Amino acid sequence: MNMPSDVNASPAEAARRVVDANTYMTLATADASGNPWATPVWFAEHELREFVWVSRFATRHSQNIAARPEVALAIFDSTVAVGSAIAVYVEGLAGELPDDELDAALAVFDTRSVAQGLRSWTRDDVTGTAPFRLYRATATQVYVLDELERRVPLL
């Protein structure tokens, strides 16, 4: 079963719990030729619509996003018993944050990082000669699955 054990929870509430409880998402990308690649990335999110992460710009997934911005995300708890998992599925467009949008997204990422006892992130960490960049996937569709594994759209 994919829906929450709390039968009173809405699909959006179930999605919120999954996102809040997990620190990694699976990011699926494809290169210019369509060759797929999936990788886990530590992330932060805003309103179940924007998902941000830091990656080296030379990584395969970062290069794929530069060539083809369409991505898919999956966020789930792999520690639960088989049949009781809830997952959030996202379709969206991703890219490196442009300078004029960097501060707001960096604030979301930094807030979650600090809240989890990790280091603070600044512009200097993701611009200029730094090896990292801040990326964002903006959701075009967000789903959870019902008990029959049908997509329940949240947007």
Would you write up a description of this structure?
There is one protein chain. The protein is an alpha+beta fold and 155 residues long. It has one domain: Pnp Oxidase, Chain A (Roll). Helix content is 26%, strand content 37%. It has four helices and eight strands. It is globular and about 50 Å long. The N terminus is likely disordered.
Distinctive features:
alpha+beta, 155 residues, Pnp Oxidase, Chain A, eight-stranded antiparallel sheet, 4 helices, 8 strands
Write a brief caption for the model.
This protein has 155 residues and is an alpha+beta fold. It has helices spanning 11-21, 60-67, 99-115, 123-126, and strands at residues 24-30, 36-42, 44-46, 50-56, 70-76, 87-96, 132-145, 151-153. It is globular and about 50 Å long.
Question: How do the strands and helices of this protein lay out in sequence?
Answer:
Elements: H1 11-21, E1 24-30, E2 36-42, E3 44-46, E4 50-56, H2 60-67, E5 70-76, E6 87-96, H3 99-115, H4 123-126, E7 132-145, E8 151-153
Antiparallel strand pairs: 1-2, 1-5, 3-4, 4-7, 5-6, 6-7, 7-8
Listing every helix as H and every strand as E from the N terminus to the C terminus, the arrangement reads: HEEEEHEEHHEE
The CATH superfamily title:
Electron Transport, Fmn-binding Protein, Chain A
> Overall mean pLDDT score?
92
What is the terminal separation in angstroms? 22 Å
Number of helices: 4
| Beta-strand percent range | 35-45%
Choose one word for the global shape: globular
Structural class: alpha+beta
Enumerate the spans where pLDDT stays under 50 for 5 or more consecutive residues. Answer: 1-5
Number of domains: 1
How many runs of DSSP E, i.e. beta strands?
8
Radius of gyration: 16 Å
CATH topology: Pnp Oxidase, Chain A
Helical amount: 25-40%
Biggest beta-sheet profile: 8 strands, antiparallel
What is the CATH domain class? Answer: Mainly Beta
Q: What CATH architecture do you see?
A: Roll
